[in-house]
């Protein structure tokens, strides 16, 4: 049995007959063909699949495609369709070296866009708390925090020399795992 869904993705209408169990993450990657939305776990814990659903950041592996019917999704591709004109958040990640392998980056950037839409000028602590659902295996998070602060128009130096106990659980190690 399949159900028809109509989902606007990055401003373009998409439609398909899908199984009710199909995850939005798989809809985006396998039906629409947008591969920036990564899948890094099967426990809804890594955040690599984060997209905006009607403007709010969600882990697309926790949403069924049928639940997104008649809604709008923005992925990393939609945020910066022109590589020469990066979205300010993506530009800040590049400027502050907020990535290494890049696997977590689309999810981090989309989560940051969601965070800044709710809190346009977060403190260093609020950045760490706001992104605690997004994991990175490479960076130790420090430059990611700098990038988010920079994207918010704050001084990235606010991320400097913070003791580990100020960091939120799951976003706190400050070292490679
Ligand atoms: S793939 Fe969605 S949280 Fe890891
Ligand atoms: S840059 Fe490699 S997982 Fe974050």
From TrEMBL:
The segment(s) forming the 2Fe-2S ferredoxin-type domain are 3-79
Q: Does the keyword Iron apply?
A: yes
- Show the coiled coil region(s): none
Q: Which Pfam families match?
A: Fer2, Fer2_2
The question of whether ATP-binding is a record keyword is answered with no
Q: Which UniProt keywords apply?
A: 2Fe-2S, Iron, Iron-sulfur, Metal-binding, Oxidoreductase
The UniProt annotation puts the region (Disordered) at 154-177
Signal peptide start-end: none
PANTHER family the record matches: OXIDOREDUCTASE WITH IRON-SULFUR SUBUNIT
Q: Where is the composition biased (Basic and acidic residues)?
A: 155-164
> What SUPFAM superfamilies does the record point to?
2Fe-2S ferredoxin-like (SSF54292), CO dehydrogenase ISP C-domain like (SSF47741)
Q: Which PROSITE patterns match?
A: 2FE2S_FER_2
Return the protein name: Carbon-monoxide dehydrogenase small subunit
